[in-house]
Amino acid sequence: MKLYNKEELKDSRLFFDTTPPSYLSWLGFFFVGVLVLGFLSLRFIPKNYVVRAQGTIEANDKAYITPLANGHVVEIHKQEGEFAKKGEKLLTLSAGTEGVQENEITKQIEELKQKQVIFDKYEKSLNEKTNYLASKGKEQEFYGKVAYYLSQVQEDKRQENTKTESTAEKQKELAKLEEEIEKIKEDNHTEYSTQISRKNNELKRAKNKKETLNNQLNSAQKNNEDTSQIKVEIETVDEQIRTLNNEIEDSTRDAEKKLETDLKSKNDEIKTKKQEIKELSSQSQAQSENTKQ
User: Domain tally for the chain?
Assistant: First the structure.
């Protein structure tokens, strides 16, 4: 590669005769292409034109606003031509009845306050079971209700006292029946014991008599005496012993049967009394719950 100094390059055609590098050619083609594309795009890209002038804007669709109630305009919140969002208040109307409605509402409030006082007295009367209400005016209706309630309470109380007394009376009858059962057992035992004791004594005497007759029979047989009369007496005593044994068995059976019958009768009465007491208690409990409600 040849090197040139500054003086040699002043009048030289070196730069003009030298072939430019290839990248410069491609760069030139690129710029030319950009210019051509720019001119072509001007034909297709929309262009905005600014015109300064005075005019009016008018909507394509007109909307008419109609209020739900008739009245006169009290206040305008949006002026003509002013932008309004959805839900914003445009104006305020008055039907001319605001004062009347206010007076009516005030009157209703006062009536409700008076009713509240009556209700408080009504509740107090029910809780304390004393009629604090007046029998005239607005309290008259509730006075009648409280009076009816108190009369019902008194009637329930009277019935409750009656049931309590009846229950107490039946409790006494029940206790008396239980005492009678014990007395029946005791009387039956006493009667049975007396009767059996008497029969046993008779049986003992008969056995002693038989033993005596047997001794006499043995003695007579040893002495070769007549024993027919003794044997007849022994048979009579044996029959008496058998009869006494049968009577003892019959007495025992009859006493047991009589005791069973008497006890069954009294137990049935006791069962009936207990059922009556249970029913009275259930009725009293139900009535008490109804009174509380």
Answer: 1
